[in-house]
Q: What sequence folds into this?
C-alpha cells in the first residue's frame, strides 16, 4: 500500500487513537485484536480466545505494528459509548454482527444509516434469548437512546454512505480530522498544519504567550489559530 492510500484511509497508532477517542490503548488492543484468557472449571483450566469486534483497516502483520484507520477510529467512539453505559460485550458484538449483515459494510457504526437506523439494529441484535437475559427489555430502548445520541455524531460529515471527516470539537470547525489530509492527523482546518507540530513548537519555545506568537511566525498562521491548536492538544493530554 503506497503513501497515497495511507493518506486516504488515515493512519493512527493505538496510542494516538487512545488520545483522540478517550479510550485506553489496552482496551483498543482487546477490541480490535482479540485476547486470550484462562477459564477454570473444577480442577481443569482451559485457554479461551476472544475474537476482535472487527478487522482493522490495516493488517498488523503486513504493516509491522498495530495501526488503525479513520473508520476504525470512529467505530471505537461508538464502542466506547456502549461500554460506558454498561452494555455487555456480547450485546455489543451482536450489534456489530447485525449491522454488518444489514448494511453489508465491515464498518457499520460509521455508516450514515447507523446514525438513523441504530435503534432498529439494537432491537434486532437483542432478540435472541441469551441476549435478552442480559438486558432489561423494558429499558433497552431508553438505554440505547442515551448511547446513540445526536451528540455522538456532532462534527461528523458524511458522503452518501460513510463518515468523511470529523471535527472533534463539534460545532467548532477550527480543528479537523480528515483521512485525506495529513494522513488523518488533527490539523487546523484552514491552514492544514498538524496541531501536534504547533504544540511541539509552543512547548519548545517556552510554553508562554511569546512562544505562541513565535509558533505563529514559524507556521505563518494567526495567533488565534495557534491558540486553538494548543487548547486542543492540551485537552487531548488531559483525557489520555
A:
Amino acid at each position: 500500500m503506497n503513501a497515497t492510500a495511507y493518506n486516504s484511509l488515515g493512519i493512527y497508532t493505538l496510542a494516538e487513537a487512545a488520545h483522540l477517542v478517550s479510550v485506553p490503548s489496552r482496551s483498543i488492543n482487546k477490541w480490535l485484536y482479540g485476547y486470550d484468557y484462562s477459564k477454570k472449571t473444577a480442577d481443569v483450566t482451559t485457554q479461551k480466545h476472544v475474537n476482535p469486534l472487527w478487522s482493522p483497516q490495516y493488517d498488523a502483520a503486513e504493516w509491522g505494528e498495530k495501526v488503525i484507520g479513520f473508520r476504525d477510529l470512529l467505530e471505537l467512539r461508538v464502542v466506547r459509548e456502549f461500554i460506558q453505559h454498561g452494555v455487555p460485550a456480547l450485546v455489543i458484538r451482536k450489534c456489530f454482527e447485525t449491522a454488518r449483515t444489514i448494511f453489508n459494510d465491515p464498518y457499520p457504526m460509521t455508516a450514515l444509516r447507523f446514525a438513523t437506523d441504530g435503534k432498529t439494529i439494537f432491537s434486532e441484535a437483542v432478540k435472541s434469548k441469551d441476549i435478552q437475559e442480559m438486558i432489561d427489555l423494558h429499558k433497552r430502548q431508553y438505554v440505547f437512546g442515551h448511547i446513540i445520541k445526536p451528540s455522538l455524531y456532532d462534527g461528523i460529515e458524511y458522503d452518501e454512505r460513510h463518515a468523511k471527516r470529523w471535527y472533534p470539537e463539534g460545532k467548532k470547525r477550527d480543528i479537523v480530522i480528515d483521512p485525506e489530509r495529513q494522513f488523518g492527523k488533527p490539523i487546523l482546518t484552514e491552514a492544514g498544519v498538524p496541531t501536534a507540530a504547533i504544540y511541539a513548537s509552543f512547548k519548545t519555545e517556552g510554553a508562554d504567550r511569546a512562544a505562541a506568537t513565535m509558533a505563529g511566525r514559524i507556521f505563518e498562521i494567526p495567533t488565534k489559530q495557534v491558540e486553538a491548536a494548543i487548547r486542543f492538544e492540551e485537552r487531548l493530554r488531559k483525557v489520555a
About this structure: The chain has three domains: 1-69, 85-153, 165-240. The longest strand covers residues 35-41. Confidence is low (pLDDT under 50) at residues 1-6. The beta strands are 12-13, 35-41, 44-50, 67-68, 156-158, 163-166, 175-176, 187-188.
